[in-house]
Amino acid sequence: MIYQILKATKHKRCPIYIRRLDKHFEFLIIYKNKLYSDYITVVPKWHQALKADPFSEKEVKDMTAILIAKARALIDKLKEK
After folding, report:
1. Angle, vertex CA 62, rays to CA 70 and CA 8, nearest 5
2. 42-68 pLDDT per residue, tens
3. Contacts from 23-30 at CB under 8 Å and sequence distance 24+?
4. Which listed residue, of 9, 38, 41, 76, carries a Cα 20 to 30 Å from 15's Cα?
5. For the segment 24-44, what is each residue's pLDDT rounded down to a tens digit?
6. DSSP β-ladder status, 34-41 and 3-11
7. pLDDT tens digits for 1-24?
8. How far from 72 is each of 18, 38, 43, CA to CA, in Å?
9. Edge-to-edge strand order for the sheet containing 34-41?
10. Vertex 72: Cα angle to 75 and 19 (nearest 5)
């Protein structure tokens, strides 16, 4: 099983953590002492499924970028309230 912390950053002073658990990529944010999260499950291409790490470095970076964008959008939405 692959477990990685891919990135830790902030948006509008809210911490964002991006992590990977095998095929599951997720973000965690803390806003007003509450934890929010969302995830994406990615199915590897059939010819890569048997590799130790079925995702390329570019695919992992792309998933990280997508989740950071989703986390930022959620923070912006929460701050509107």
Report:
1. 60
2. 988 777 776 778 888 999 999 999 999
3. 23/54, 25/63, 25/64, 25/67, 26/67, 27/67, 27/68, 27/70, 27/71, 29/71, 29/74, 29/75
4. 41
5. 999 999 999 999 999 999 988
6. unpaired
7. 889 999 999 999 999 999 999 899
8. 12, 12, 24
9. 3-11, 14-21, 24-31, 34-41
10. 105
